[in-house]
Automatic annotation (TrEMBL):
Residues 133-144 have a biased composition (Basic residues). Keywords: DNA-binding, Nucleus, Transcription, Transcription regulation. Residues 1-24, 87-147 are annotated as: Disordered. Residues 91-114 have a biased composition (Low complexity). PROSITE patterns: WRKY. Residues 153-218 form the WRKY domain. This is WRKY transcription factor protein. It is found in: Nucleus. Its main location: nucleus.
Amino acid sequence: MEDKEKVFNPATTTEFTSESNWGLGADDSDNVNLFFSSNRDSNILSEFGWNFQPEQLNRIGPEDRLDLAGGGSGSLWFQERSGLSGSIQPVDKATSDASASASNNPSVSSSSSDDPTEKSTGSIAETPSTNKSKTKKGQKRIRQPRFAFMTKTEVDNLEDGYRWRKYGQKAVKNSPFPRSYYRCTNSKCTVKKRVERSSEDPTIVITTYEGQHCHHTIGFPRGGVIGHEAGFASHLVPSNPMSQFYYPLSQLPRETSLTSIPESDHYHQQAGTEAGGSSTVIMHSETNPQSAAPAHIHQGLLGDIVPPGMRNR
DNA sequence: CGAGTTTGACCAGCGC
DNA sequence: GCGCTGGTCAAACTCG
């Protein structure tokens, strides 16, 4: 509500939000199945702070998309959000843009550590009141680059190789399902994620990541596999250690369904507050509802995305 | 006892 | 200005 993220069904509409700075250009309508299939996407991503290498872009291009879809494993919805891209942000977002850019880089020590996350992880010495007033009154909330994806799974919290601490839960308007807030347990890491179920299809879990991990995964419980999330984060965050997890979609096991969404259930999420989130890109692969993999195969894990040996240690 | 979760309260941003 | 909603905090609680 606060933010201008809006329902966006790439298959049926090219409508963007009123302040949508989606950056997809004029040919959005042609890209129902867009999935990192062009240099334009690369530009978008780099604009958001996700830096793809050309090779990687190629490797997860249209062929991969088709392969995934052709495998009958369903479709992947991939949404990227960002509070960066100062040039396309509303004026009042400029401040947070700058700060977000800085805090986005773990190596950058921030005098601008007004990020609530940084505050909570790094300013333990402060009294709660001081702490609060500093971060909440003085400055606007900082948004880090985000991306979201939907996963058909019965498990809310997917294994992604990182450890998360839940710090909040909220009821979501127009949804019977609460939204959970997690942050990375690594004290130096400011990454957060939100997990919520689609109100339209309770079997779909919408996971939104914010920020980039500045550390390696902690390992992989339950058999040492990496999850969907890490798999996709690795596509988007080659600058961090997870990049070594890069794994071309074309090599995904056929039975690996990242997200299986019937065409009638295209993304209608009422997005939450995304103060800086005026830019959203949704990448969508072919949908094949008939052959959608059963949700139970996920078991909250997508480790099978990454073949043995590619795991991080 | 430490780590993680729950949950009510608080705050900021936005729309009206 | 007010109310609504999302996001976060932090004390209390649970669990291993």
